[in-house]
Design goal:
The structure holds two protein chains of two kinds. Chain A has four helices and no strands. By secondary structure, chain A is an all-alpha fold. The longest helix of chain A has 16 residues. Chain B is an alpha+beta fold. Chain B has a four-stranded antiparallel sheet. The longest helix of chain B is centred in the N-terminal third of the chain and has 17 residues. Chain B is globular, with a radius of gyration of 28 Å. About 24% of the residues of chain B have low confidence. Classes of the chains: A mainly alpha, B alpha+beta. At the A-B interface, helix 2 and helix 4 of A face strand 2, strand 3, strand 4 and helix 3 of B.
Chain lengths: 88, 156
């Protein structure tokens, strides 16, 4: 029979753990956000075309502001919609 | 010297030649005012995200230029605003990162990064491929059990 020391966890302890969020701009060294690149900007808006909050995207404050500006520019140029349903 | 970038949408109802002349008039206008055209990006006919002037598509042009004086922008924007062929426009001052980004994009350096993003989408594609592969498999299985039935009938 296995001794008591072998049995440490009944279930996998990493199972319910949240993955640490990170700022992808800092991590990959992206310095400029192109407002003409709709594919890239789609990662930062929800299905209705609203900007996703920082607590979901994990962006740092500096780059969240730049993302917001880029999305707003794209909306003006009809690259992204102002309001929709089922964007993705 | 400041870097600028003006993006505008031309009415798609115009003929191809008219669209090209419209874009070249603004290029020559900027040149006359002492600007250096760095690059002209013809993004072509694109679907608009929402209707503008009751049109659902437009021809996108993006002119990147350098200018010694900022007064050029006001004149250019006034001309763009008065022009009925232009549906929308946006002038942006580029910082050093923006200039570098555009250069890298032209030389194809950014495309290496761009491949990273579509990787997530091809992730769906391989997932779809096995489904297709699985479908023929049951068909084979159905064929296989069928012969024994025929054998049993023969025995009876």
């Amino acid at each position: 029979m296995a001794s008591r020391d072998d049995i440490k966890f009944l279930s996998n302890p990493t199972l319910g753990q949240q993955r640490k969020k990170y700022c992808r701009f800092k991590k990959y060294g992206i310095k400029y956000i192109d407002y003409k690149d709709s594919e890239f900007l789609l990662q930062f808006v929800n299905e209705q075309g609203k900007l996703l909050p920082r607590r979901i995207t994990g962006n740092s404050l500096k780059y969240q502001k730049l993302v917001a500006v880029a999305v707003k520019r794209a909306r003006h140029l009809a690259i992204l919609p102002y309001v929709t349903d089922l964007l993705k | 010297m400041n870097h600028y970038e003006v993006t505008f949408i031309i009415d798609p109802v115009l003929s191809g030649d008219e669209i090209r002349t419209t874009a070249s008039t603004y290029q020559s206008m900027l040149k006359d005012q002492g600007c250096d055209i760095v690059h002209v990006n013809e993004m072509g006919l694109r679907q608009l995200a929402y209707p503008v002037n009751r049109k659902s598509s437009g021809v996108y042009y993006c002119i990147e230029f350098t200018s010694p004086v900022g007064a050029v922008i006001g004149k250019t924007e006034l001309a763009l605003r008065r022009d009925e062929r232009i549906m929308r426009f946006l002038t942006v001052k580029l910082d050093k990162y923006g200039v570098k980004y555009n250069e890298d994009r032209r030389s194809g350096k950014i495309s290496a990064y761009k491949k990273k993003e579509p990787k997530k989408k091809p992730g769906d594609m391989p997932a779809a491929a096995p489904e297709v592969a699985e479908q023929p498999a049951p068909v084979i299985k159905q064929e296989a059990p069928a012969p024994p039935v025929a054998v049993i009938n023969e025995e009876e």
